[in-house]
Amino acid sequence: MDLAIISVAALENWEGSQTSLSLRMREAIEWIRIARIIGAPILQVPASFEDASLLVSEDEIVHQLRLLADCGLPRFGSDESTVEIAYEPMAWSVRSDTWQHALYIKRRVGRPNFKLCLDTYHILAKLWGDCSSPDGRIPGGDAALERSLFQTLNLMKAEDVSFVQLSDAALAQPPVTIAQLREAGKHPSWYWCSKGRCFPYQKSLGAYLPMTDIIRTWLIELGWSGWVSMEIFHSSMAQQDRGPGFWAFHGRTSWDKVKMEMAKDVRSARL
């Protein structure tokens, strides 16, 4: 099979952890070694969602992330490949829960291989979608998303990005209740992330997030031309008759729909 591994996602709640830095560094070095062996160019690191990391100063967070990024750079005189660190702001991260703050941290880290992983679900779950609301929306979400996309083109460059993840979400019917969230002990976006994420425009699973504008901004207007990952975390994945081939087919169908929507935008702009 002609497959390429895009990234290794092995580190969680890494920066600012209460675990000793030396132990975390040993773990990171080992995973970067594995990434090089399997030809994966990226180590994906979600921004910490551990409350205890807020006890650590921003300067220390930046210091730790610099050390991590340095591990991904080739040692002097070696033929090692560079491994990028893809720092991902998640909707429930406790410090870098927006792309704006993650970009600020990226620039403070200041390493050429320290970049961002942009995920449509996390941006839209922060600004627009709410699984606990009857209509699935955050009030003022359209305006908030418009501002965010405007800022993207003014503050970010394609070179700031390591890779892009495209993921939609199903409208929660009925809405997720406070009791469900309390029982799970999770932020609403985190709770729904593991149950209701689907491929872009996958209407058969109830996809409803406003994907077109954010995809157009990232893939066309920002000029991103690197890796794009199609993501799904849906409760129906537990069904035994829905194996890898089933989801690969629907992922490909979703990507074709993305290309069709982007082509419509290009044609409209020419008229």
Automatic annotation (TrEMBL):
Xylose isomerase-like TIM barrel domain sequence ranges: 24-239
SUPFAM superfamilies hit by this protein: Xylose isomerase-like
InterPro entries: IolE/XylAMocC-like, Xyl_isomerase-like_sf, Xyl_isomerase-like_TIM-brl
Transmembrane spans: none
PANTHER family tied to this protein: DIOXYGENASE, PUTATIVE (AFU_ORTHOLOGUE AFUA_6G00240)-RELATED, HYDROXYPYRUVATE ISOMERASE
The protein's name in its UniProt record: Xylose isomerase-like TIM barrel domain-containing protein
Organism of derivation: Hortaea werneckii
Classification lineage: Eukaryota, Fungi, Dikarya, Ascomycota, Pezizomycotina
